[in-house]
Give the backbone structure.
Amino acid sequence: MLAILGPGLVSGFADNDAGGIATYSLAGIQFGYDLLWVILASQIVLFFTQEVGARLGLATGQGLTGLVRGRYGVRWAAFVAVLMLIANLGTTLAEFAGIGAALSLFGVPIAVSAVLSAVAMVLLVSRGSFGKVQFLFVAVGIAVSIAYLASAILAKPDWGLAVTRLVIPKLSGAPVYWLAVVGTVGTTITPWGQAFIQAYVVDKGLGVKALLGERIDVALGSWLTNVIAGFIVVACAATLWASGQTNITDVAQAAKALGPLAGSSATLLFAGGLLAASLLGLGVVPLTSAYTVCEAFGWEAGVQWRWRDAPVFYGLLAFFVGFAALVVLIPGLPLFQVIVLSQVLNGLLLPFILVFVMLLARDRSLMGALRSGRLLTVIGWAVTVILAAMSVVLVYVSLAPPAS
Amino acid sequence: MTQYLTTLLGVPIATPSGAVVGELDDLLADARQWPVPRVLRVEVRFPDRDRGWLPLDAVRIGPDRVSVDAGASRNPPDRTHLLRLRAQLLDHQAIDLVEAAVVRVNDVVLTQTSAGLEVTRVDVGLTGLARELAPRSSRGLLGRLTPRAPWQHELAWTDIDPVESAIDHFQLFDAHAGIRRLAPAAIARILPPLRPGDRMAILGALGGETVAAVLVASDARFRRLLMTKLNQ
């Protein structure tokens, strides 16, 4: 069982990356405990989307774009790969922005943090063994969980109100409320998360027999992801929202503002959590980009290979990390807007990815005994339609000029 | 004369009077021909989306048009030993027997010989990919230019092994003969990127001692997976 755990956990932990933490923090700062129900709903949706991704990996032994190419041809595979790369570039920038924001609290310039983290991540993924890389990813995920759990406890929240809002939604007709709802769901369920879990299941060498274990892994990953998200919302709601400091617009400000309200250790934990989560995202998102391209065009991919065996895979990985590190060093680049825009791109891409995932999961010749049954198909398509509608709303509200 | 499959796909098929009856949708080759498959039929897609089939000797393939003398039959041919080049080879995985690697087929190279139109090579490099991704109108030009490109990567038909999942309803002339000649360590290297059914088909074509040697040469995690499948 322990040998199977990993893809769901790492994918789940990595969902709480820089963009995720920024979104959850703002949800707590602006709406208090009111959006906790969205976290619970996201957990359910995340389980179903990740489960079908893991099942595709188990049944076919191949990544998403490789399957799209074999079934629908090179143009659709290239379409998926290009959109994924654009969205992933935005997300990678967001991870560098998160690392820079967290370390800036300790006086580290963003140029130093970007270069060091880029080099460290490429070396880790290309030189570490599969087991060590996975161990580190899970360990960082657990560290992030502990940091935000501790932050929430130090904030002395109203746990009764938090539990009530978790199960009984407090709705609002305000557009900004629904933008926050869409943003919260959109940051939890991501295109790269969908491609990553499938590629990771394949890379780990899991087969059909691992279905039950992988479902448990995905359920655990989805649950932990959203528990952490809940703690972030609670920490910000109990301090910044409760004290009326609702005009904070970025996550570094939020970490700093926690100090006077919940003690300096809360600031340290919050910033440490952001740093660890951004590093985890930096390890996962460019890796997904490299998998996506190599799977689509038939180049060898996987962290089990050495540089000389899979030069394109590692070259792409280094390029994606290096390019994003260079972009983030552009003077005056609005880092918070970069994070928000990366989520808009993710939101735009997600429905396209899910359509392919749902079609492939119903393909009897590909999936065999693991083909989606009627119930899972109905749930899958319902989730796809809901997320598509939410993505349209997210994109529209994000790009439309504010009402005067 | 050499032709690329991607430059032929979608080409209009016309009668001697110039009336377009449909477009070229696929080429069907006899997979049991040795050493290379020979194209026997042309698959036509009519404007009503229905399909028809023409014997190769009833058509003349030009650079931007296929001329046809007879009407196409709408009765599908017996496909038992027919390899559909677009549907079953293009975009699918194949095993590069020289490098012991799993590749994707980006294009199929056809050569007109005295015996007929033969499948002589497959393109697994960037030039084939560029032709496949390009708009149909520019594929012909790319087909004429790209053979000189330094990054072209073509493999002889005898140096590849098409994977089973794409062509599961018939047997090639001697399925996996090339793989049987590879060292166990090379076979262990090509198995992981394949689909589970393809891995089992390859292992099924090997002798017991070779399978054992392949398992020994495999990564520990992958070995466990293979042994679970073999025990089923």
In short: Chain A has 17 helices and no strands. The mean pLDDT of chain A is 82. The CA atoms of residues 76 and 319 of chain A lie 24 Å apart.
